[in-house]
Each structure stands twice: as C-alpha cells, then as structure tokens.
UniProtKB/TrEMBL annotation:
Pathway listed: Protein modification; protein ubiquitination
Classification of source organism: Eukaryota, Viridiplantae, Streptophyta, Embryophyta, Tracheophyta
Annotated source species: Fraxinus pennsylvanica
The reaction(s) this protein catalyses: S-ubiquitinyl-[E2 ubiquitin-conjugating enzyme]-L-cysteine + [acceptor protein]-L-lysine = [E2 ubiquitin-conjugating enzyme]-L-cysteine + N(6)-ubiquitinyl-[acceptor protein]-L-lysine
GO biological process, one term: protein ubiquitination
Location of the U-box domain: 13-87
Name this polypeptide is given: U-box domain-containing protein
GO molecular function ontology, one term from the record: ubiquitin protein ligase activity
InterPro entries: ARM-like, ARM-type_fold, ARM_PUB, PUB22/23/24-like, RING-Ubox_PUB, Ubox_domain, Znf_RING/FYVE/PHD
Length: 417
C-alpha cells in the first residue's frame, strides 16, 4: 500500500470488501475472474503467473483467465478515499485498462493491409503506439501477436513508392523503438545497408521526434547483434555520428533526445575502428558541455563514452584541448557513482599519459586529494587500479608538501587493467 495508507488500521478501517482477498490491501484496480470473485489486478496476475490455475477464494478451476474490470467497485473505493481524506487517505487514480488481444490483432491487421485506406492504417499504428507507451503489459500483449515482424515490414517497405507511406514508416519505427528486438530481427535491419541508410537519413528529419525514434532503433539494433563486422558496418554508415551528435546537441526542451542520444553514441563508440568519426562529428564537445545535464545512468554512459574516445589519439587530443575537460572529470570522481568514478579516472589516466600539460592541469584541479581518497574508498577495484596508476604517473607533478603525505599509498604496486 502507498505510504499515505499505512496508518489506516489506527485512524480508519478499510471496508472488508474493498480489500483484495490475496494481498488484504486496498484494491487499486479491482477485476473479476470467471468464478465471480474480485481481486486487485496486480495480485491475481501474480497468482496466475506463478502457475496457479484455481480461484484463490473458491478453489474452483479458472477455466477462463480473462480479467473483467469492476468499474462499480473501483468508483466506490475512490469515493471512500475522497470521504476519508482527513485521515490521510489519497484517492486512487483511475487505472488505464490493458490492451485487449483481440483489439491488438485487429489494429495490426489494419495497419499491415495494403487494401486498407491510408488514414485507417495510420490511425491503427498511432493507436498501437499509444497502447505500447502505456505499460509493459501492453507491450507484452502487442509483442505476442507477431507485432515486431509486422512493424519491421511496414517500416522498411518500398519507401519511394508513395509519399504518404513515410508517415506509416515513421509510426512503425516509433513503436519498434519501444521494444527489445530479437537478434534475427536486429539482423533483418543490420544486414541490409539500405535499411541502415534509411534510419540514418531519419536522423536528419525535420521532426526531432522522428530523429530520436530512429536513434533509439539504431541503438537497439547495434546492441542486439553479436557480429563485430555488422556492428562496424553500422557505425561506418555515412553521417551516422553527425546525426547522433546532432540529437545530443538538441535543446533541453526535449530531454528524451539527450537520453536516447547518449545510448546510441555509446553503442556506436564500442566499435573501436570508427571512434575517430565520432570525434570528427563533434562528440567531444557535446559530451563535455552536456555532462552536467545527464541523469545518473546516462552520466555513466556519457563518461564511458568519454573514456572510450580518450583511448584514440584524435579523441585524446580533442578532450585535452577543451578547457572544461580536466576540471569536470576531476570533480566527478567520488561524486556520481562507482562506475562514473571509474570511467572518469580512466579518462584522466589516458589524458595525463599523453600530455604533461594535462598532468599539471589535473594537479591544479585538485586531482591528488580525490585520488588518495579513492584508493581508500569502497569503489571498484578497477577504479582503484586506475587511481594508483594515475598517482604514479603524476608523482613528478605533485607539490612538495604532498609527497610526504603520500608515502602510505602503494602507488608503485600497480596491477595493469
């Protein structure tokens, strides 16, 4: 139950018929099963998912697993919540009903049928997209009806045959970007340069939503294939890094662009032989200037991308030339997460190994204190090893008054990473 309902047993009594017979908590989405008993949707779905085939109350067989929303009971519960607001009870929201499998099949049939008028096909795809956005359960229902194969066919059909068809393709790409694709489905895209080229072209579309959805699908495809050659082929597609960096640089009024952009950039940067193309496209400037705007998980991806690009000469030189690089990386150590610290330390190690000027900048930014704290922390062993290697590298740049205080740290006993 939500925290606001915890004291109810003391302040107010929940009516018996408002409680789920399984969880004994206030029902938020009451549904009725074929035996006539009503349960909270989450509880009965969990009951069935664990292999139970009988009604928990009556013990009768569940011959039909259809869950019928009990709207009357849900409204009574909502009215009761409103009447007891003075006791700290919050009104339960009206739940969105899960997608009906029959309706999903009808929508997919409409969308895929070339004999269906264009407007109805587009409307069906938009309805499917709305359902897919609503919940994981809806996406499961949609996926169970062979939707991904159908949508891939629509997305990559003869795109030049009809100017209207592009809208159907854009909607299909948008829906596909909400799913994880199987490896054969990813190969369907990755193995065809024309399909990859089409997605890259969408990265420059006038609509930022189309651009972001294309970037999301590219990331899903790259992450879903195991073939290094195909990954390299995608990352070598003309303009792909320019398109991704353009999404990263999009104004913050569309925050999804930042999240999808860094996922796609990181996936592409895992291919070593084409990282220089990311540097040439302006990825270094985009990463450094946006590092403070990422959420935690996205910050880790961004820093991992920074470390990867620092491992090639052009990337290392570009980061070293940016005045904010060293101060930001030093500041991040021990601030965001263990992984973020590890990636920041790794990037600094690459930068300082390439330039004495960068070593002096790091020392001036206060890296010594951060590294000495890092090797004593509970951070990852890889982060500690990188810190030890960096401390050893910077030893000649230490201020004299710091050397005497550093003798207790085993900076010479470094294990390569």
């Amino acid at each position: 139950m939500p925290g606001s309902l915890e004291p109810l047993d003391v302040g107010v009594q929940i009516p018996y018929h408002f409680r789920c017979p399984i969880s004994l908590e206030l029902m938020r989405d009451p549904v009725t099963v074929c035996t006539g008993q009503t349960y909270d949707r989450t509880s009965i779905e969990s009951w069935v998912a664990t292999g139970n085939t009988t009604c928990p109350v009556t013990r009768l067989p569940l011959t039909d697993f259809t869950l019928i929303p009990n709207h009357t009971l849900r409204r009574l519960i909502q009215d009761w919540c409103v009447a007891n607001q003075s006791f700290g009870v919050e009104r339960i929201p009206t739940p969105k009903q899960p997608a009906d499998p029959t309706m999903v099949r009808n929508l997919l049939n409409k969308a895929s049928s070339e004999s269906t008028p264009f407007g109805l096909r587009l409307s069906a795809l938009r309805r499917l997209r709305g359902l897919a956005r609503d919940s994981d359960k809806n996406r499961s229902v949609i996926a169970a009806n062979n939707a991904r194969e159908i949508l891939l066919a629509i997305a990559f059909s003869d795109l030049d045959s009809d100017s209207n068809f592009s809208e159907l393709s854009h909607e299909s790409v948008a829906i596909l970007s909400l799913f994880l694709l199987s490896e054969p489905e990813c190969l369907f895209v990755a193995a065809d340069p024309d399909r990859v080229g089409y997605l890259v072209n969408l990265l420059f579309h006038s609509s930022v939503e189309v651009r972001v959805n294309s970037a999301a699908l590219i990331e899903i495809v790259v992450a879903g294939i195991r073939s290094p050659d195909l990954r390299a082929q995608i990352s070598n597609a003309p303009g792909i890094f320019d398109g991704i960096v353009g999404i990263l640089n999009f104004p913050l009024a569309y925050p999804k662009a930042l999240k999808i952009g860094i996922k796609a950039l990181f996936a592409l940067c895992l291919v070593k032989q084409h990282r220089h193309k990311a540097v040439a496209a302006g990825a270094v400037e985009a990463l450094i200037e946006r590092l403070g705007e990422f959420e935690k998980c996205d910050s880790e991806r961004a820093l991992a991308s920074v470390e990867l690009l620092c491992r090639i000469p052009s990337g290392c030189a570009a980061f070293a030339a940016h005045s904010l690089t060293v101060p930001i990386l030093v500041k991040i150590i021990l601030k965001i997460s263990d992984r973020a610290t590890e990636y920041a330390a790794g990037a600094l190690l690459s930068l300082c190994s390439a330039s004495e000027l960068t070593q002096r900048e790091a020392v001036a930014a206060g890296v010594l204190t951060k590294l000495l704290l890092l090797v004593q922390s509970d951070c990852t062993e890889r982060a500690k090893r990188k810190a030890q290697m960096l401390l050893k590298l910077l030893r000649d740049s230490w201020p004299e008054d710091s050397i005497a205080n550093s003798d207790d740290f085993a900076c010479s006993d470094v294990v390569p990473f």
